[in-house]
Amino acid sequence: MKITGLETYSLSAPLPQPVRTSTIAISQVSEVIVKLATDEGHVGLGEAHGPFLFQGAEGLRAVKKILDSITPLVVGRDPFETERIWQDLFALTYTSVRGIPPLARQQRVLVTAMSAIDIALWDLKGKAIGRPVHALLGGALRERVPAYVTGFYYRDGEKPDDVVREAASYVELGYRTLKVKVGGLTPEDDAARVGRIRRAVGKDVALMLDANQGWNLPTAIEAAKRCEAHDIFWLEDPMPWFDERRTLARLKEETSIPIAAGETEYTPFGLRTMVTEGLVDYLIIDSTWAGGLTTWRKAAVLAELYQIPMAAHHDPQIHVHAVAASPTGFILESFADASRDPLWFELFRERPQIVDGFMAVPDQPGLGLELRQETLEKYGVKLG
Ligand SMILES: [Mg+2]
Questions:
Q1: What is the mean pLDDT of residues 246-260?
Q2: Per-residue model confidence as pLDDT tens digits over 9-54
Q3: Do residues 180 and 44 both lie within one domain?
Q4: What are phi and psi of 252, to 5 degrees?
Q5: Is the pLDDT of residue 384 over 70?
Q6: Rounded distance from Cα 31 to ligand 1 centre (Å)
Q7: How many whole angstroms separate alpha carbon 119 and alpha carbon 195?
Q8: What is the distance in A from the centroid of ligand 1 to the CA of 318?
Q9: Which residues surround ligand 1, an ion (CB under 5 A)?
């Protein structure tokens, strides 16, 4: 089987009401979709979702440009050469590969583009042998995978009762693990907001906190200490990525709350540092921006050997395969309503459902996803 074509779709969907984390305002969600055609008629589907895609058309254009330039390293190849293709594309982060100049200054965009390609290759391999992607990753170790809901974004004009109502809506949907944004207020006000949510949901619901890198070390220590009383399951991305080797180690000495991080890493080597240096209690990976399911697979071996549970960032429809097949695979991230991620709600013909806080492991060939043409047209961005 040979890949005969690479097609790209760029999608961007505005949110009805912008939401904020501690560090960014999100007013739209964007995604790059790659379709790989083959001489045997199978079509592989991949998605990329890099952080800069919040920029809309500008971010999409950057990924599209890279995809165009790396297409010659993909078309004509056998999709079962996934690792060789990954190695070729990753090498472009520092060197020229078969006449294509290095993309050293665009590493992050390159790795986002190769994520979509890599995911499409896994989808293609599954479709070619008629088995789901998790079977290719070693086989599902569980029949269903837990999913948490991310919510409690900061919104303009938020009233104290809003988070209480929001919490009730998630519990009503069956979720038993909720993730709350922190870092956007003072540690005192954030802790009071978390306390309101804790009182609303009672003792039996797990609460995670996500600071989206919004604190420096002293503020993180203060906020963690103030939140400890509310029985926190994990604290995610407390401080910026660039000094985590030092800051996470220091924070871990000061708080009893388990630390989760990794979504800001975009290579397996960064993830290795997190695990081997004992910086995280939970390793978070987003394969749609960190080099695809091939990166996940590399990290999964390490996470098993160090006994670190793995959690997915975004895109549960893809990560369900990876979490199911990883020995320490633990949990998926999801959104509960279309106002946060219209693409997740509208992109697929049959969206894998999350019932009582679990997603069933799919059994259709490949990723088991089929795109809705109407959505591609509705949110498609012409890059011209
Ligand atoms: Mg996060």
A1: 98
A2: 999 999 999 999 999 999 999 999 999 999 999 999 999 987 777 7
A3: no
A4: -65, -25
A5: no
A6: 17
A7: 40
A8: 17
A9: 210
